[in-house]
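Recall the central idea of this unit: under ordinary conditions, the amino acid sequence of a chain determines the structure it adopts. In this exercise we apply that idea directly, starting from the sequence alone.
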Amino acid sequence: VQLQASGGGLVQAGDSLTLSCAASGRTFSGYAVGWFRQAPEKERESVAYISWSGDRLYYADSVKGRFTISKDNAKNTVYLQMNSLNSDDTAVYYCASGPSTTKWYLFRQYRYWGQGTLVTVSS
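Accordingly, the structure predicted from this sequence is:
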């Protein structure tokens, strides 16, 4: 499966942005999706997760209450709605897909990765 992350851009602090992760080659059927991000000179970190059924959602503490992950199975797309953005959210955002897991924060749980989309938040 190929994943295409999109929706990144330059925004101001306090703005909102929605990222999309579209799958091609196969659907997300049976697979969970996670969002990760990597800021300049920092390690990649987990951001959010949604199980295939959509009944399990996880968020990093740093984004809880501000980010919302959702999916549209008909469009084979997962979204990351990001509100109240701040400069700490500046990073390349990646989506990844793999079997459902409780260890959603571990990179090795995911089989497929998108190419990343850059989000820059100016203060």
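Residues 98 and 111 are 5 Å apart (CA to CA).
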